[in-house]
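Below is a filled-in request sheet from our internal design queue. Each sheet records the structural input a requester submitted and the sequence that came back. We keep these sheets so that new team members can see what a complete request looks like end to end.

REQUESTER: design group, bay 2
PRIORITY: normal
MODE: inverse folding
CHAIN LENGTH: 185
BACKBONE (tokenized):
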């Protein structure tokens, strides 16, 4: 047995195997799970479709302009999802509408993560009374289903996109707070 004061030479150390980064490990595990990989590909496809909506469909010609001659058509090669009672293409309207949905969800999750992360970090770091107070408040919010709480908040504040973002952000705060608190502890 060596004493504490002896130096360890390079010969004494066993070489460590090369280690992948956490991101690379996560990506390799994702590639092994076919369902998760299919979900990721579909999510990327939907996001790219929303981002490039103007390139795919002319907003004025397919979403706004009425074409009574093309009204109520069944799905076809020209209109994949058919047309509405004003002759507007359903697919084009869905793709352009997805841009709004994507931005609302991104902003709401970002605000929820910011506020929930801050509350969770404060609760985990300071502990005791502050932790107990914040976590009991989170328990109250978690007792109500997230979508029901968002609907109640929008009903109380009024129907607008800003109020919807606030409602979704507030409804997601307790979940993020608990996750961050557990990481801090």
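RETURNED SEQUENCE:
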């Amino acid at each position: 047995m060596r004493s504490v004061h002896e130096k360890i030479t390079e010969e004494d150390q066993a070489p460590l195997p090369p280690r992948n980064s956490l991101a690379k490990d996560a990506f390799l595990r994702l590639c092994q799970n076919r369902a998760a990989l299919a979900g990721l590909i579909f999510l990327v496809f939907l996001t790219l479709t929303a981002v490039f909506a103007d390139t795919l469909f002319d907003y004025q010609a397919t979403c706004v302009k009425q074409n009574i001659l093309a009204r109520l058509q069944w799905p076809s090669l020209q209109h994949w999802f058919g047309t509405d009672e004003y002759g507007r293409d359903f697919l084009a309207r869905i793709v352009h509408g997805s841009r709004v949905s994507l931005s609302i969800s991104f902003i709401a999750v970002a605000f929820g993560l910011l506020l929930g992360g801050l509350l969770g970090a404060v609760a985990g770091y300071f502990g005791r009374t502050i932790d107990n107070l914040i976590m009991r408040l989170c328990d109250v919010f978690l007792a109500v289903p997230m979508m029901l709480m968002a609907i109640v908040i929008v009903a109380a504040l009024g129907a607008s996109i800003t109020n919807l973002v606030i409602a979704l952000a507030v409804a997601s705060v307790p979940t993020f707070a608990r996750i961050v608190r557990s990481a801090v502890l």
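SHEET NOTES:
- The longest helix spans residues 90-126.
- The helical segments are 22-32, 34-51, 53-56, 59-64, 90-126, 128-143, 146-157, 161-184.
FILED BY: M.R.
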